[in-house]
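Entry 12.
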Amino acid sequence: MKGFVRGLIWFLVFVAILVGVYFVLPEYPQSVVKSVIQPMVDTTAEVRISQVQSMLNEDLGGVTYKAILEAQTKNPCWVYSLDEMTGVETVTFYGRGVSINLKDYEEYQGKLSTSAMIKMEFVITGQQVDIHPYVDGVKMELDQSTHMQENKQIRLEILSQLYTGKGVLEQ
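Predicted 3D structure (tokens):
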């Protein structure tokens, strides 16, 4: 009986350490762990992630976002979240190890990342999905009210580079 209690205590200590480490991890490693576990325990997350992955991007020839985002990224992962207060759902993609070249875009200070961490937020509000790209933790959008066209163009540029390795300007 003492051995069982001792084993149970060690197991609980081990689980507590794992949970503590999980909450201390930075965003990307934490998301990798969450992306493995979340679809197994949350069917809503699994469905929403699948829906976003299968959305088509007509600007790149009707290719799915899963194919675009996972074409060149290393360790891709998808995570779902729901804001209980507003009802807004967000599916977030994370990937690493790609080159993003925005040197021809003055408004982004000629950003060039050779081993970038990419984050794409798909914010779902009712039937509308807004996509927000991040490169190395920096949101790649200008003021929404006056730069709608530039935001769409930079998003297309990033997606094109993730999918083909070339930007829209190079094709």
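Annotation: The mean pLDDT is 80. The helical segments are 2-24, 27-41, 43-53, 65-70, 148-164.
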